[in-house]
Design a protein that fits this description.
By secondary structure, this protein is an alpha/beta fold. Helix content is 34%, strand content 16%. The protein folds into two domains: 241 residues, 3-Layer(aba) Sandwich (Aspartate Aminotransferase, domain 2); 102 residues, Alpha-Beta Complex (Aspartate Aminotransferase, domain 1), CATH 3.90.1150. A seven-stranded mixed beta sheet has the order 2-8-7-6-5-3-4. α3 packs across α4. The longest helix is centred in the C-terminal third of the chain and has 21 residues. It is globular. The mean pLDDT is 97. The protein binds 4'-deoxy-4'-aminopyridoxal-5'-phosphate. The site of 4'-deoxy-4'-aminopyridoxal-5'-phosphate has 12 residues, from α3.
């Protein structure tokens, strides 16, 4: 197979080594004579796969013992609902920070369960920056404060968790989980969908401090009930076994890369090259405040918008694919998760320079 450089925001590129291992094991996992897809979720083989994935995630993120780790179906959107169901605990409000498309989705879902207090919103800047912490109004009695650690579409990223005192902090890390070290102890709950840095779509990982769970809203369906899922090791129903298996391969690969400190260095190098190419040109421009630019998703525009179609078509011919901006904003977006090699970014940067020379 001829591989392209896939800049998709998700489902996203997987490392070649992970695909190769998956291909090998498709022919038989260990000595079972079965592919990983065919293993019973109750059998010792799949249980060993799931336990290893959890152990590797705990090791990579240094997750303390008093946090539960869950692998759940329904993606991050499932967690938009599960978080309020589990963490509202009878409080009057939950606080949310809106930094773009995905925060707005989380807010809309939380409103199904109670009063959402908007602590801050980047709407006035068209979500091109993150409102400074000093301007936020966090309800001190809120059940929790929710923020989106990386806005996959708008391309703004928190480079440090916000200080919120005693209010439990909840982060949607769908598009930057495992891209850098994180101090889990600063969080009440971290969740993220898997299709960017953890493999396949449909799966979400949840890391939650155990003292906060056990007071779920009475209408909570069993599959969204964290204590039930924790007691049954994320097997209240048949889990998405192949997605858990692939998450396991991604975690092993990440350990082989040297863990999160090493992958962060790699990600900073890629993002620096990409933004330097955008800023150093008169054809390309980034709408995002440089202080909060995402290392994972770089949206940009061409000064002459009518050239964007040709840019995308020619990029595709050069083996640089899925660079279209989200349908809500247009333009171009390069997503460069952990699996994007530096050579992929180099190839994109050199294509951008060449295109500018010819068409700019
Ligand atoms: N949050 C963020 C930041 C995302 O990027 C996405 C998906 N792109 C989601 C939530 C929703 O994830 P899913 O489609 O897996 O439910």
């Amino acid at each position: 197979m001829t591989r392209v450089y896939n800049f998709s925001p998700g489902p996203a590129a997987l490392p070649n080594a992970v695909l190769e291992k998956a291909r090998e094991e498709l022919e038989g996992w260990r000595a079972t004579g079965m592919s990983p897809m065919e293993l019973s979720h109750r059998g010792k083989e799949f249980i060993s796969i799931a336990e290893k994935a959890e152990a590797d995630l705990r090791e990579l993120l240094a997750v303390p013992k008093h946090y539960k780790v869950l692998f759940l179906a329904g993606g991050a959107s499932g967690q938009f609902a599960a978080v309020p169901m589990n963490l509202w605990r009878g409080r009057r409000t939950a606080s949310y920070v809106s930094t773009g498309y995905w925060s707005e989705k989380a807010i809309a879902e939380a409103r199904l369960f109670g009063e959402v207090q908007i602590a801050a919103s980047g709407k006035e800047s068209n979500f091109t920056t993150i409102p400074p912490r000093a301007t936020w109004r966090v309800d001190p009695d809120a059940a929790y404060l929710h923020y989106t650690a990386n806005e996959t579409i708008g391309g703004v990223e928190f480079h440090a968790p916000p200080e919120v005192g005693d209010v439990p902090l909840v982060a949607d890390m769908s598009s930057n989980i495992l891209s850098r070290p994180v101090d889990v102890t600063q969080y009440a709950l971290i969740y993220g969908s898997a299709q960017k840095n953890l493999g396949l779509a449909g799966l979400a990982v949840v890391i939650v401090r155990e003292d906060l769970i056990g007071h779920a809203w009475p209408g909570t369906p069993s599959i969204f009930d964290y204590p039930q899922q924790a007691d049954e090791r994320s097997m209240v129903n048949t889990p998405p076994t192949y997605a858990v298996y692939m998450a396991g391969l991604m975690l092993e690969w990440l350990k082989e890369q040297g863990g999160l400190k090493a992958i962060e260095v790699h990600n900073i190098r890629k993002a620096t090259k990409l933004y330097a190419a955008i800023d150093g040109s008169s054809l390309y421009s980034s709408p995002v405040d440089p202080a909060v630019r995402s290392r994972m998703n770089a949206p940009f525009h061409l000064a002459d918008h009518t050239l964007e179609k040709a840019f995308l078509e020619e990029a595709k011919e050069a083996g640089l694919v899925t660079l279209e901006g989200h349908r809500s904003v247009g333009g171009v977006r390069a997503s460069v998760y952990n699996a994007m090699p530096e050579e992929g970014v180099d190839a994109l940067v050199s294509f951008m320079r060449d295109f500018e020379k010819r068409r700019g």
